[in-house]
Write the structure tokens for this entry.
Amino acid sequence: MVVSFIIKKQTYFDSVTLMLIGSQVKKLPGIDNTVVGMCTDYNIDSLKRLSMYQSAFDGLTPNDLIICIRASDKKTADAAITEVEKRLASRKKPSGSAELPPSSQEDAAARLPDANMVLISVPGEYAAAETEKALNAGRHVMLFSDNVSIEEELRIKTLGVSKELLVMGPDCGTAIINGTPLAFANAVRPGNIGLVAASGTGLQEVTSTIHRLGCGITQAIGVGGRDLSEKIGGKMTLMATRALAEDPATRVIVLLSKPPAESVLKTLYAELKGISKKIVIYFIGADPKAIEAEGFVAANNLEDAAIKACDLSTDKQHKPELSEAQIAEAAAGCKMTGRFLRGLYSGGTLCDEAQRILQPLVGELSSNTPIKGCKKMSDVYSSTGHCIIDLGDDDFTRGKAHPMIDPAYRAERIEKEVADPDAGLILFDVVLGYGSHLDMAGEMVEAIKNGCKKANRQPLLAACICGTHEDPQNYEQQKTTLEKAGIKVFPTNVAMVKFAQLCLERNK
Amino acid sequence: MHIDIQQANATAVNAIQAAQPVLKGIGTAIDVVPGMKKNLILHAGPPITWEKMSGPLRGAVIGALIYEGLAKTPEEAEKMAATDKIEYSPWHEHDGVGPMAGVGTASMPVRILENQTNGRKTFCTLNEGLGKVLRYGAFSEEVITRLKWMETVLAPVLKAAIPLAPQINLKNMIAQALQMGDEVHNRNKAATSLLIRELAPAIVKTDFPTADKAKVLEFMHSNDHFFLNLSMPAAKMMLQAAEWIEGSTIVTTMCRNGTEFGIRVAGLKDRWFTGPAQIVKGLLFPGFSEEDCNPDIGDSAITETCGIGGFSMAAAPAIVKFVGGTVNDAMNFTRKMYEITDGESQAFQIPNMEFRGSPLGINLLKVCEKNILPQINTGIAHKNAGVGQVGAGLVNPPMKCFEDALEAYVEKYCKDE
Amino acid sequence: MLKDFFGKKVKVINLGIASFADDLRKQGVETVHTDWRPPAGGNKKIQALLTKVANWQSKVKSAKGAR
């Protein structure tokens, strides 16, 4: 048994709150006993009685808070202390003194004057004005809202840069700042990799993979999909990259984006060349050789970006979680039950990545968000031929929540695909993390089961899980749920798409 | 123009807070009310003509003309009221306020309040009581008789008593009443009790027949809302202190004449912004329905303008009976008003909100920005003259008043931005 | 400087989607959720008037600062 403790001087909480939290934490595995309380005579007696009293408690007063845990080992005890602190911090105010929630940014700022980040997801037409308010008040902004005009984006980013404040967006769904996941983001351990991304799910995929490979991040900064366009000129990308270059905690910098506009690329490369740290670049669909020629490390896909970043982070070699042989083994004996492939994605970048890898193989491939070389679907609600669909795109989300939050339409669609005799292989992503549905696997499996039963067929199914074992969902449980339903599960989109390649080749 | 609105508003709110309304005495309207004339009828709400008046106000005008001896019968009064022999003007433009129809004429006794901070005065008639009274548009002989009694007995007794009583600081009395379950618009019971207590010994000491003194005391006692005719001019006096601070967006007047709702803003001197008076939603007394209700009427919304009345609903949970809600609803109404006000009252504290000061200083910009209207808690008059009160409930001003005021404000101060 | 912000505790004002604030609170992040509504109840004319006032005041305040 090990006893861990912390003392918080001059920190008051009411005794009921402290007792409740103490008894909740006591129930955690490996915990023998907890004393969470103000340093009153009564609590001192309790500590002595339980042989948990420490000499460090001498001289403390009833205005000082003690969190003291006895557990099976130090790690467990320390973790329990952290848990107590978390619960104290997130305790709701008693309703008697409750005020109505503030109804404006100004009122919110009056309640939390030292707020340093404003997370904006209001309708697009109001988002720029709210962003300006935040910047003028000296706060960083994460701008989740879309439907912000490019002129407004230029205006707010110019203002942000002038004050050296982040404007992450518009249409930015993912960021992890100072260890805090914002909006849709995964729980990723701290480390020395800093990322700047113009893509939400791309950032989720890369950061999750980095975590699973055992490494960690300093910052994951989203800049919005248009930042590297000619008009915006990469303003946020440049500002964020410079800051990471000067950040002593960051050793490796990763850039993820669609290929920037030509004029922006020149400025960007010039800026990056002045940085002495290693830089991994993944411009989706760009020629890696051209990037390497400029002197940077080029990634071939999102999984590869994570691997290369981990290599540079630790000076050790990292491998994909599944080897080519393991993927081949998964594909052995798998037969497509129809001519065509269908992909139902909630993440736009993952949808693009799949298109990019598969289009050369199948020739004719359509999507609602086709990349170069793919066709636009004539009816996005009805798949024909090989089809890879981004269900998070505007076509499907008008008036509805995003599929990562509400799987209802994606479940409906997979039921339809499963019943289609032409659909021989169906792929889908399960994105975990904060903001996402708590049991996406369960929802999809139920829809699949219903569809298979009704149509009396079972197509080949594969899924990739984008997430970590620290995410609010239970990674292993999600994996098991999918596997039990006969779905092949992969740790990355790339692995799943490679599996699809093998199946398609065999099907020719 | 170089004006910092935040500063202008802070100046306005500070001036409001600094006011010290004291009950100075009683006078006759023609002698003490600025601009009073024999043929002038002062009324509640923004300016209005005879043609546009609703039932209760018309009835009150008729009753007033008979009381003043300008007409002998209701028919004669009605004819005369429509001619230009009779002039009409809002009480607010004469430093006064009137509840419900709020009709005031030359011979009527009025209370005189004085602001100890700047010497200015405000006025209000004496409250007649409940039921068939002038302010609900009744004009029967009973009404006229009572008005005469008030002029010849009630007023003189009070006038003599007031100097003999300890000085009555109305801000303090209202503050005490708020901590006793009143909000001094719809609930005045505690305040009326406090007032009677202050005046009773002085009344006894005056040199009038015992029967008269007794009747005066009984009269005050029989009317829970007797204090309303003091809380209103006290609130008026406080807000008057902010008129007309250049650039300020603080609302200094909210009032209704039964047809229109009117507001005025500190930085827009003398200008009225009006919109249709709304129907009050609440609890009706047995036998009455929505068709019977007159639109919102009276200057009593001056209490809300000053952070009391509906803005202090949290202090008077008993009010919620009229709005079919819970005690928590009453508290939420008050909480919401903090969103549209710039300050919190130093004098008027609300016990069950940890003695937080009531929301003070309605900011026109906040009302527009947040689309939150001031919450008023008021009595409902029957739409026919002379029937009386039919219920009480909640009502808001029409947004149009604030939109028009904002437009005028921009036109005056920053139209070229 | 942006790099000076790295390493600091993030404290958030959330405007819009409530679940973002819930998730932050779950992680023990100090968060104020705002019951945000469109300004002026969505009335464009009033929004335009309010913007004029805001622009005017912005100028007045910065002129003051410059003195």
